[in-house]
Task: structure prediction
Amino acid sequence: MLSLEQAVEIRVLSRQDVGVREIARQLGCSRNTVRRYLRDPEATRYADRAARPQKLDPYKAYLMARVEAARPHWIPATVLLREIREQGYDGGISQLKALLAPLKRQEVEPLVRFETAPGEQMQVDFTTIRRGRHRLLAFVGTLGYSRSSAVRFCDREDAASWMDGLKAAFVHFGGVPKQVLFDNAKSVVIERDAYGDGLHRWHPDLLALAEAYGFLPKLCRPYRAKTKGKVERFNRYLKESFVTPLAASLKTAGLQLDVAVANAHVGRWLIEVADQRVHGTTGVKPAVRLDEERHVLQALPAARDEAPARVPAAARPVPIDSFQHPLSVYQDLLEVRP
Result:
């Protein structure tokens, strides 16, 4: 049975038009439980019943003190169980976990959004679309301010692929940000902190590219998975809203999504679909913010100011199947041109 506070929270969230699935996720309970409390407000009227004593009661003060002292970290239930058993507790771990569960949710480190000024930063990453013999990878670059992204598919993740991806991204955006944030890929950084704290030994190809295009390479902080959160959140959107529908359509015709086909269609999808969605964090279409950001991006080097050669569309029929997002857009994307 949920607490009175949780039951009230369910009803308040429901009045705010939050769906049952989201309420269940936020409270850590099942959807059936949420529905039951919404259908039957009387389900929470249990306050008059006397609480039954539990074996854990004598140890609650100790447990609360331990939890408080450990903040912002967390002591596992198995460790606390061992400690109170040494004090005489002879119950199981279920009661202990039930007591700690709401406290643990409070201990989750708050997500602090790190926003950057227009033209300040681009976050880059390689995401794996398909493993095995026919690998399919994607270089993804996301501008920190606008959340507009550039994508280049490839079949390997070496230094050349990183450099090609960076150059393609700069051309796609029409300029160069002040810094580019990388993870710790060995194709990019040879040795972290080689010359002191924050002074890394970069791959020579990256150094040359950074000098030519005028950006500063930066590394994510170690063990901070959310440092590149902007680009990593886009990776999932790319797979679900572009790669999966396109691959499914090809599969019905006995064909397989490859690098050439993906690159032939992703550019238009980025402009007409991805950049036109209202971004969940900024509340603005990336295309709108990109218009602002382009004014402060650094100019492309003169020798590389021209756009790269377009990848020819695959000369084979692709069926128009059911896709996520605007159907007309995907129909245009998959249209076979003579």
